[in-house]
Amino acid sequence: LNAEIRPNLPPGMRIDVSTNDALYIKEMARSLKDHLIEGTLLAALIVWLFLRSISSTLIIATAIPVSLLGAVAVMYFSGFTFNTMTLLALLLLIGVVVDDAIVVLENIFRHREKLDADPVSAAINGSREVVFAVIAATLSLVCIFAPVIFMEGIIGKFFKSFAVVVTFGVLVSLMVSLTLTPMLCSRYLKVETQHGRLYYLLDNFFKHR
């Protein structure tokens, strides 16, 4: 406005800003960015409270940024920008992308604890056991969001980027849960027979709820 439009106005003519929606849009985008960081940290905290294992929590928490980066890559190749719809989609993905990884890790943990002490074979057999359940859960989410991509009209224009980011983010989380998560479990998952005081405090807390 100051650099291009006002210098070219005829003498005696003045132009002012009546309303500026950019302020609200920028504030909304900034709020979504803050919620993205807070949601990632809180999701990792909830996983730690229930798994009560630092190594398990770190493995699960790794699935969040990796899956989000996969969704961001889809945004890049699709020509989408970071706007309110795409940021909202990334915010929604935080709680979704950890589901498959938790299922895979829990079954691998069970194999390590009760069936097979070898980390590599436990990771392979544990993930192989739940592969169809994980695929079914992921495809059910894809069936919900993918049809939104093909919506027509002005609503379809608005929600297309949201649906694309969520759909492909969920598919990336499936790939991460069946590849990265078993690999990390085979190398870094620790199964302890004796637990610390904090473990038993949390265990007693949840048992009495």
User: What structural class is derived from the secondary structure elements?
Assistant: mainly alpha
Shape: elongated
Query: What is the CA-atom radius of gyration, in angstroms?
Result: 23 Å
- Beta strand count: 0
Provide a compact summary of the structure.
By secondary structure, the protein is mainly alpha-helical. It is built from eight helices and no strands.
Structure description:
The structure is a single chain. With 209 residues, this protein is mainly alpha-helical. 76% of the residues lie in helices and 0% in strands. It has eight helices and no strands. Helix 1 runs antiparallel to helix 2 and helix 3 (84-115) runs parallel beside helix 6. The longest helix is centred in the middle third of the chain and has 32 residues, at 84-115. The protein is elongated and about 85 Å long.
Which structural traits does this protein have?
209 residues; mainly alpha; 8 helices; 76% helix
Question: What does the secondary structure layout of this molecule look like, with pairings?
Answer:
Layout: H1 22-51, H2 54-78, H3 84-115, H4 119-129, H5 131-145, H6 153-178, H7 180-188, H8 197-207
Helix pairs in contact: 1-2, 1-3, 2-3, 2-6, 2-7, 3-4, 3-6, 4-7, 5-6
